[in-house]
Amino acid sequence: MPALTFWERVKYTLVRPDDEPTKKAASDDRSADELRAAIHRSDDKERAIGLVAAPVAAIVGIAISTASISYAKTHHQNVHVYDELTYVLLGLAVLILVASLLRKRLFQGITLALFGVAVFQLKYTYVGFAAPFVLAGAWYMVRAYRLQQALKRAEGDAGGRQRAAQSAPSPRPRASKRYTPPT
After folding, report:
1. pTM of the entire predicted model
2. Quick one: 4 exposed, middle or buried, by C-beta within 10 A (0-12, 13-18, 19+)?
3. How far apart are the C-alpha atoms of 17 and 11, rounded to whole Å?
């Protein structure tokens, strides 16, 4: 076997190929009811991450707005915009906390991602503060998506067959109610 190139080594380090192409991906063994319950409420780990992220978001928001206000004062700029920024960032931190307390996974992800994007839009110097929030929000949203897909697979073909039978076209088209016969 020839030696791998640098690019192939990097590629196979990041994405591992399947060992056996016939082997199926690991499926979720939970029933449809268990998956519905998992979709409805986030688990303890997700809630804990949100409960930690909310105060961190508030601290980051206050720190960023304080630095922006002091920069605006020294450069004789309008401070009113940065005051509103403080309210927006603190409001998003409160929404993160509320979504975490209510165990709403998708809303946690959306609010975390929005907070990260809001911080990212300020200056490039705040990317280090924004990236963890965007990544955590994306993680929540990917988990919500994967649970929805697992629920679709768990419901299986029975639900799909029923929907296909209901939407199957009739063998003969119905007569149009707007048809006017020739006179």
Report:
1. 0.71
2. exposed
3. 10
